[in-house]
User: What shape does this take?
Amino acid sequence: MDATSLGLPPAWAGIDLGPGSVAAGRILHLTGFVPQACAYTLAELQQLPSRMLGTTEIVCLTGEQVARADSYRGVALIDLLAQTGLGNVSRHALKECMIIARGSDGYRALFSWNELYNTPVGDGVIVVYERDGDALDPHLGPCALISASDLRTGPRHLRQLCEIKVLRISG
Assistant: This one.
């Protein structure tokens, strides 16, 4: 599959996307315990209401800064989850939900429903597609995930975000 035909930026030209890596141009899939599963192309993500993050540092668990950007643009994770109809699920069931974000390398970040919707963390979890006014570099994605309110942003920073899955954990 050709990067240009998927609407990816010129920096992606010549990168082998391989069969199955981007089904029908959909780069991000929202699945699991949701009323309506969704899948988005980069262009579709860019059409959704966006949020800007100002200066953001990616800091690993040791405290070392591994990246810095003056700005990121993307879509709030809670806004994407709303697109699936998750808000129509009973509050009792939602309190038993975990949200698992996965990068194409298999790296995962976890959030509880309560953390996203009942703490300031939720406002800062962004599916980003722009850094400093430009498309993300190929090693970061077409989209990535940043949890900007975390004390250490690195452990839940996902490159090449490809799936967000809602799981209901019941005892």
In short: The CA atoms of residues 129 and 135 lie 6 Å apart. Confidence is low (pLDDT under 50) at residues 14-22. The chain has one domain: 4-168. The chain is about 15% helix and 35% strand.
